[in-house]
Inverse folding.
């Protein structure tokens, strides 16, 4: 059994194929996917997806969607978490975090707004006793600062791509790290080194569908400008991606499935309850 700890099943790109590909994923052993929201307008779709497809979801405002968000959306998030706090499918606050690709990075109005949304959502996670699903791009140290400041000590740093020292700091803070399609590229040497060497209990598997396609779905920029669409990533790719990581680590695939499922359940305790009560 596998868990895809990060897939945007509600994304528009997946609409036409989502139901069918979710079935393929299930047939390949992906029992559960975590569907993180990215903005207020996606909260309902994430919850509906989870209800209709036996998955779980997270509610939050993604750093890349903060620019278009209103501070009132934070009040709306609080009300939404309050209203659904007893929903067993609601397993985390996410996707929240910081993205260092804003211009300018680490200072200025755009960064400041990201930071304020991040800290406010960390406080909501703490208040509702939920772990976090984190987007951390070129911002590991700033994310750690926020986690320490608010005292959030559970969750997943999704699509992790930091240094060995930053990985250790994330683990010391009590979080696990998500690895996905990026590990399937031979050129991703530092990331593959991390995936191969981190302690086994610190890793969860994810696809980040429809984004970050594995190497076998990747369409180059040139091919895309010539009209070939990017391959669509989703939870049905999770076992193949996880097999690459298992091979990098020299471990048996089924043992890796067991290990990473246990890690995901530890990182998202309500998901464990959900699995014990509902998943077959
Ligand atoms: Zn995401």
């Amino acid at each position: 059994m596998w868990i895809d700890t990060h897939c945007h099943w509600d994304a528009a790109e997946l609409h036409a194929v989502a139901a069918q590909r979710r079935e393929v994923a299930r047939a390949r052993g992906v029992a559960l996917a975590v569907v993180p929201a990215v903005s207020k307008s996606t909260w309902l779709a994430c919850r509906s997806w989870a209800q209709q497809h036996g998955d779980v979801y997270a509610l939050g405002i993604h750093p890349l969607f903060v620019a278009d968000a209103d501070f009132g959306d934070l009040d709306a998030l609080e009300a939404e978490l309050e209203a659904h706090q007893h929903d067993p499918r609601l397993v985390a606050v996410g996707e929240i975090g910081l993205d260092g690709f804003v211009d300018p990075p680490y200072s200025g109005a755009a960064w400041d707004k990201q930071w304020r949304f991040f800290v406010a959502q960390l406080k909501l996670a703490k208040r509702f006793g939920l772990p976090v699903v984190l987007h951390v791009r070129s911002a590991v140290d700033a994310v750690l600062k926020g986690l320490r400041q608010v005292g959030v000590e559970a969750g997943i740093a999704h699509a992790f791509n930091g240094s060995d020292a930053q990985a250790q700091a994330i683990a010391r803070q009590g979080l696990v790290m998500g690895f996905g399609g990026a590990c399937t590229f031979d050129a991703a040497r530092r990331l593959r080194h991390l995936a191969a060497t981190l302690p086994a209990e610190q890793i969860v598997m994810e696809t980040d569908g429809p984004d970050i396609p594995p190497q076998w779905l990747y369409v180059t920029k040139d091919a895309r400008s010539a009209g070939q669409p990017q391959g669509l990533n989703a939870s049905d790719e999770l076992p193949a991606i996880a097999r690459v990581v298992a091979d990098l680590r020299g471990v048996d695939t089924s043992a890796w499935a067991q290990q990473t499922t246990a890690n995901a359940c530890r990182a998202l305790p309500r998901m464990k309850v959900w699995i014990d009560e509902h998943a077959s």
About this structure: The longest strand covers residues 90-99. Residues 40 and 76 are 8 Å apart (CA to CA). The radius of gyration is 17 Å.
